[in-house]
Amino acid sequence: MSDRAAQFRALYRDLRIADQERFYNDRSAEYEQAHRQAIMVRNTLLVVAAVAGVAGQFTSGTGRAGLGVAAAVLAALAAAVTAFEALIGFSQLQKLYNDAALNLAEAGIDWDTAEPDGETPAEVERVEQVFRTENGQWGQLVIKGITRAAPAAGKGER
């Protein structure tokens, strides 16, 4: 293998494969953390709403009404957090980035174990296919989001 080919392989490995894999892993961790935070906030709001509802049973007058309103508002906020998490799709995004990172890690292993004088264009194509697949997933998420936002579009309208 020529020195120039070795430099290309090392540069491609560092700047294309490893850098992008790091990006995918970071995004995956970010969305996993956001999903956990949304669940924690939702559960906390529901527990506080339940406590307010139970406490309202042991009071009377305006205190009871206030605790009832507080319980209802907190439950509504928990529903809003759940809806936001579902709308953004933190778990779907985490899966998309995690899958891309795993596919890229596998391609990186193959890159490292390939013969230096082997088929570099085919190996590059494999790595680039991981990126194209990830981009294609974004299109599917957009279409899925559009159909979720307007499921009745064109149905029943005259």
Please characterize this protein's 3D structure.
- This protein is mainly α and 158 residues long.
- It has one domain (3-149).
- It is built from four helices and no strands.
- Helix 3 (90-113) runs antiparallel to helix 4.
- The longest helix has 54 residues, at 3-56.
- The radius of gyration is 25 Å and the shape is rod-shaped.
- The chain starts with a helix and ends in a 9-residue tail after the last helix.
- What is the helix tally? 4
Mean pLDDT: 87
Rounded to the nearest angstrom, the distance between the terminal CA atoms is 69 Å
- How is the biggest beta sheet arranged? none
Uncertain ranges: 151-158
Q: Note the run of SSEs as H and E.
A: HHHH
How many DSSP-defined strands?
A: 0
Layout of secondary structure:
Layout: H1 3-56, H2 62-88, H3 90-113, H4 120-149
